[in-house]
Amino acid sequence: MSNKTELMELSETPIELIEEVSKQISHYLIGIVKIQKSLTSEDAILIGSGTLVEIENTFGILTAHHVMERLPPQGKIGFVLFEQLHRYTLQSEFLEKIVVDKELIPSEGPDLAFIVLPPTTLGQIKALKSFYNLSLKRDKILSNPFKNDMGIWFLCGFPDEQTTYDRPIKGFEIVKGFHGLCGAGGVEKEYIVGNYDYLEFEVHYNKNSQVPKSFGGVSGGGLWHVPLQKSKEGKITPQEIILSGVAFHQSSMINNIRTIKCHGRRSIYKVAYELVRNKCF
Predict the structure, then answer these.
(1) Taking the domain 6-280, which CATH number applies?
(2) Over the stretch 221-253, which tens digit does the pLDDT of each residue have?
(3) Which among 267, 229, 280 is positioned nearest to 65, based on CA atoms?
(4) I need a surface site. Which of 4, 60, 175, 241 has the fewest CB within 10 A?
(5) Cα–Cα distance, 158 to 50 (Å, whole number)
C-alpha cells in the first residue's frame, strides 16, 4: 500500500485548512508598540510586527531593522501577545538589539534585526506564545528548500489600519485593539543581492477584497511557506509550516496589485542566524 502524496495549489485549498494554518502561525506572531506618555495618560502606538524565534537557546524577536530602530533607548515597550485585554511591557534598556543590516534605500533593503529577550521574561511569554526553532530545519532549508510554487504562502503581521479604539474598561482609560492578520497568497519573485535574498509576496485587490488597503504595521512580520499534500484518500494537510521571510516594504498599488517585499530564507537562516549566534555565544 502506497503512502505517496501530491502537492496542492492555493486554489484547491479548503478555507478550513487555511484558517487552521493561520491559527498555528499566529502562535509565533507578536506586535511591537511604543508607549507614548502625556501629562495625564499614556498611549500605545503600533510600530511594527515580529516573529518569536529561537536560535540555539537564544530567544527573541526577528523583525525589520526600521521597526527596531523606532524603539526608544529607554522606557517601556509594549508587546501584543494574545487576543484578550492585556498590557504587557518590558524596559527597552533590558533588551539586546542586534542590527543584522540596515537599509540604505527603504524599498531595497537590507532591513533585518533581532531583539534578544531577557531570560527572566521567557517563562511568562512561553505560557502565552511559542518560539519557532530556526535550528531544527536550518540545514534542510539552506540546502534543499521547497520550490516556491509548492503549496501556499502566508504573510502575518498587524496592519495599523485595523487598529481599533474602545471605551475605558477594567481600569484602562484607553483601550486599543491591535488585530493580527495571516493572509494566504503566493510568492511571485525571488532574487539575491549581495548576501541577502528577497521574496515578493503579491496582494491582489478586487471589488470584494477584504484585505488591508495598506500594510503599514506589518513590517517585521513573518512570511511563511506551507507546502500542502493530498493523500490517496483525498485529505489535504500541511506538509510543513516554514518561516521563510521577514516583511519590510510595501509597493504602491499597480493594476490592483500590491507587492510586499520580504527578506528570504538565506537572509534568516544564514546571515541573521550566524550573526546572532556569534554575538550571543
Answers:
(1) 2.40.10.120
(2) 999 999 988 778 878 888 899 999 999 999 999
(3) 267
(4) 4
(5) 9
* Three-class SS of 183-235: EEEEEEEEEEECCEEEEEEEEECCCCCCCCCCCCCCCCCEEEEECEEECCCCC
- Phi and psi at residue 273, to the nearest 5°: -55, -50
Spell out the domain ranges in the chain.
6-280
**Ramachandran category for residue 79: left, alpha or beta (phi over 0 → left; psi -120 to 50 → alpha):** beta
Per-residue pLDDT reduced to its tens digit, 57-87: 999 999 999 999 999 999 889 898 877 667 7
**For the whole prediction, is pTM greater than 0.85?**
yes
Rounded Cα distance, 170 and 249, in Å: 37
Half-sphere exposure of 193 (CA within 13 A, CB side): 9
Rg, Å, the chain Cα set: 19
| Cβ-based neighbour number of residue 66 at 10 Å | 20
User: What CA–CA distance (Å, rounded) separates 202 from 207?
Assistant: 17
Alpha helices in 72-211 (DSSP H): 122-128, 138-143
If you count DSSP H runs as helices and E runs as strands, how many of each does the chain have, helices first?
A: 6, 19
**Residues contacting residue 262 through CB under 8 Å, at least 6 positions apart:** 155, 198, 199, 200, 201, 223, 245, 246, 247, 248
Cell of 94: 533590558
8-state DSSP, 120: G
pLDDT at position 11 over 60? no
Yes or no: say if 222 and 156 are a contact pair by the CB < 8 Å rule: yes
DSSP code for 75: S
